Amino acid sequence: MSSLTEKDRPIVQLLLKAGTCPRCILRFCCVGSQMLYRHPHKDLMKDLQEFLKNSQEKEDTVCLDVADPPCKRIRLEHREEGADDQNHNGAILQIPEADVGNAAMESSAVKVCNVCLGILQEFCEADFVKKVCQKVNSADYQFTSFVFSVSLPPQLSVRERAAWLGLKQEMRNLGLPLAKDDIVQLKEAYKWIIHPQLSEELGVPADGKSLFEVSVVFAHPETEEECHFLATACPDCFKPAKNKQSVFTRMAVIKALEKIKEEDFLKHFPCPPSSPKKLCDALEIQCNNGAVFVAGRYNKYSRNLPQTPWIIDGERKLESSVEELISEHLMAEFKADSFNFSSSGREDVDVRTLGNGRPFAIELVNPRRIHFTAEEMKRLQQAINDSSDKIQVRDLQLVTREAIGRMKEGEEEKTKTYSALIWTDKAIQREDIAFLDDIKELKLDQKTPLRVLHRRPLAVRCRLIHTMRSEYIDEHHFRLHLKTQAGTYIKEFVHGDFGRTKPNIGSLLNRTADILELDVESVDVDWPPTLAD
């Protein structure tokens, strides 16, 4: 049952006198009725005034009884046994009730709450809700539900502590015990009020698991001024960070409040807190959609196209890349902010990828559009394929974040098939290379190739050549078809990389060998699923 009772009377009386808004008073009275917080501010103030005038027995109620799920609460102090059983009536008369109520009513229209800094006042009104929804609608996102998040000024925790200590102090002066209970979190109360209004305006439900987030960042100009005493008392809690504009972050303030002694807090901050000079500012209203993941396989037909942008010392070497040719269409259709490209391995700029292609996945960050039918994905695939003769894409589809992990699972245990055009300095005959066909499970020791040493650590990697099949062309050329363990450096296996790969084709043939062309014929990863044409 969520209601005010006679034991709440001194709390209501003292907080109203201090300049606290009705909704914060309900929070300090541990009222868990969501519906009650949604009542208009003026109605709540009137109800509290009537409550103070009420002379019925202490368990009579004036508020609406509503069944609600359990709410999150802030643990201020542990409950004291027997505190709720004390009778408060004898001392309440020391404060004229009518005067307190009237003063609160007269100032409610102009005074900003000394605890929430106006969060539970102006920013709960329909005008602000409409402002938020206008921002959401103008951003042109696709969504079927939303999750609402709010960032509050750090000093709200300070003011909440000050209100509690001031309340406790005043109650002690009146000779009244104070039930050491938990108060409702400000964020929780705010969401109770805002969620139904946003749902009605946006036409979709609030859902804590939604991938579409609407967030409001509140700030207050007096944050540093009000938190400065904590930095003096607890300097270890406030350390500058590169990505933070101020040391007074919410977590730093909370940590300091846990460390500071009660008597030190009372010396440096007014308890209860004084009324603020200004209202909070809604600094930012932001929207963000959870990432969407697109997967497929690509073929690369050019020997002058890198997989990703080729930039050295800030200078671009080639005008495009596989990544860009695919992503530019996805970015345009999904209306995303950015993307992250990944694939099952990579080929060199001069290597083609043939056969059924190489699996890839693209994470589209903060997309405005998220819903695509299978037919729309087919058209998108066709648009990519029509835009360039250097690549082709197949099996383009939406996938989950979890599914992408399958592309990387056991990557080094997978096999890849290659076709290499090889040159030898000495003349060869068919019988000179025929023995290569009989070699199975050839073990290699490959030291990090010189050509990639600038971006990969020096190490010796053991790799397997599962099978080879030679195809004689002329006395200085032959083609070699290889099935290898993923991660094998094929070029180095052919020419030896100055002895850094052992054995190699040159050492096996006892002559100098080099590679002229290399094609990836298959990447044996069973992902993503093959789609019907």
UniProtKB/TrEMBL annotation:
Catalysis performed (reactions): uridine(55) in tRNA = pseudouridine(55) in tRNA; uridine(54) in tRNA = pseudouridine(54) in tRNA
The protein's enzyme class: isomerase
UniProt keywords, alphabetically: Coiled coil, Cytoplasm, Isomerase, Metal-binding, Mitochondrion, Nucleus, tRNA processing, Zinc
GO CC, any one term: nucleus
NCBIfam families attached to this UniProt entry: pseudo_Pus10arc
Protein family according to the UniProt entry: Belongs to the pseudouridine synthase Pus10 family.
Record's protein name: tRNA pseudouridine synthase Pus10
Organism: Eulacestoma nigropectus (wattled ploughbill)
Lineage: Eukaryota, Metazoa, Chordata, Craniata, Vertebrata
The encoding gene: Pus10
